[in-house]
């Protein structure tokens, strides 16, 4: 595999763009014209070649720029990385899973050599090479979870399973859709899902929790979630709301195509072996309305999704200020004719 | 469900009733790491029928070149333990599930109190490795019938030193739950595995002493029991099958070629829960998962261990 990593930014001058190839593989989440929450979980098995689910963790053209953006966010706010002391086994589980997956899936980019407990890890795109003793935290410059979370695109939460529920007891969160690790750390499943509208009524969270409690080693699962973001900004955290919140007021009929982005999260859930914990991975994909409209059926479908979205979800996802403008812009693609089921671009 | 093909590398007779099997991955290579207290479900082909039993993984979760399980020969066996004792030899091939942990250590406990009765020692054989590795504060109290039945007691004394306390029933040594539980510091978690009566007695004693519910942990796998035959209607699959006297509902469903979820097959995890649409007789709940209220309501059933005393039972599957 040859990947040219782009030089781009997710803040200030926002030079992030998707190549035609990245647009085509975008994980468009809407198979139908209407959207409501469901337990839309499927096995995280090897997907089509070139798709974002071909590998356990997707590495794409934005990899290097995204890792640089992570490092900046963490430097400015160290609370984006937190791990309670009882999560150390889960930290090593995370390091093992990410190192083994990346080196097996992208051998040109990453390598892992094991001599007993002495492991050597090389990350060519980021120019990192370290030897350490697996299980001995003193042999790395930082905790194992932080070490590898800095080297994989996306956010990561390590969940501890106890008391019949799951606790968010460690996290590395720098590209979140308006939620706070500092606020949620240590919380149980029903606590951190409390604000999500509609789902209590649907019983979705109870069923999802029961399912996850029985999640099996060797059988990870995934789902897609979505929201919208103004500018290609990864760090839309509540802590930094002053830096991005007001951008919602800047959307006009002239700039909507470039400013408004569909933000799709590819969420993965993995049972971890030594800790019996669960890894929750949240990988963010951004696409501007202009880029999205490369494929007419996506523009048409998204127009219909936004039009029919439940008022509670419009409010919860923070779309109120620019939804109308976006619908108006997208309407030029939608002549009302039926769009076949499925998420494919063409 | 994902399974792993293993072969038997070694068999050790630990006591007159207990055999210890060492399993290695077919074709070589490591097995997945696991956490203390995990079990695997072993599939056996007994006279053309697939029989599946859960067994705790023993030994260090860090040593994943082999898995270790121990099987006690059950007098009233439905075939599984007798098959493991009589038919499985060095070189035999078996299918196992990935490890599942329904008996995990509470990592934040200030102290861990492990209580084992007889073959109930097996999940603790891996837990003590995690506890030793992390330097946790723990005690293991292990009761068994007579010295020849104290599986692994010598090994445990060597591994755990003063942390292990053995109680030999035939020598009049009694494990007094009340005394043990009342002298523990705040923040202690108790874990019990053994015969049903022992588990119930310990939990009730702890409750009476005011222990918080979430500080008590037990692992009980029930084996499916024999019963009267009945008819099973599977609505979504639109078939009707017979559950004979000596097989479980889950086994009958699987034998009919219908894919049903499961994990522990011992009524502990809740994964196989099915919705009851109708029954012309009482449900016989044998699981440890449903609450008493859920059992009384009769809307759900765990087909791995439970049955019905009826002519016909209809499930939403």
Topology of helices and strands:
The complex is a heterodimer of chains A (346) and B (317).
Chain A: H1 20-24, E1 42-43, H2 63-76, E2 81-83, H3 88-105, E3 110-115, E4 118-123, E5 128-133, H4 144-149, E6 155-162, E7 165-172, H5 181-184, H6 189-192, H7 199-202, H8 204-213, E8 221-230, H9 241-244, H10 256-259, E9 260-271, E10 278-288, H11 289-292, H12 296-308, H13 311-316, H14 320-330
Antiparallel strand pairs in A: 1-8, 2-7, 3-4, 4-5, 6-7, 6-10, 8-9, 9-10
Chain B: E1 3-13, E2 18-25, E3 38-46, E4 49-56, E5 67-72, H1 80-86, E6 93-97, E7 100-101, E8 111-117, H2 122-134, E9 138-144, H3 153-160, E10 164-168, H4 177-182, E11 188-193, H5 196-208, E12 216-219, E13 230-234, E14 239-243, H6 249-255, E15 274-279, E16 283-284, H7 292-297, E17 300-301, E18 307-308, E19 312-315
Your description of this structure?
The complex is a heterodimer of chains A (346) and B (317). By secondary structure, chain A is an alpha+beta fold. Helix content of chain A is 31%, strand content 21%. Chain A has helices at residues 20-24, 63-76, 88-105, 144-149, 181-184, 189-192, 199-202, 204-213, 241-244, 256-259, 289-292, 296-308, 311-316, 320-330, and strands spanning 42-43, 81-83, 110-115, 118-123, 128-133, 155-162, 165-172, 221-230, 260-271, 278-288. In chain A, the strands form two sheets. A seven-stranded antiparallel β-sheet of chain A has the order 1-8-9-10-6-7-2. With 317 residues, chain B is of the alpha/beta class. Chain B has helices at residues 80-86, 122-134, 153-160, 177-182, 196-208, 249-255, 292-297; strands at 3-13, 18-25, 38-46, 49-56, 67-72, 93-97, 100-101, 111-117, 138-144, 164-168, 188-193, 216-219, 230-234, 239-243, 274-279, 283-284, 300-301, 307-308, 312-315. In chain B, the strands form four sheets. In chain B, strands 1, 2, 3, 4, 5, 6 and 7 form a seven-stranded antiparallel β-sheet that branches. In chain B, strands 10-9-8-11-12 form a five-stranded parallel β-sheet, sandwiched between helices. A five-stranded mixed β-sheet of chain B has the order 14-13-19-15-17. The mean pLDDT of chain B is 93. The A-B interface holds A 86-87, 89, 93, 96, 135, 160-164, 210, 214, 216-219, 273-276 and B 1-2, 32-35, 37-38, 61-62, 97-101, 104, 106-108, 134, 214, 263, 269-271.
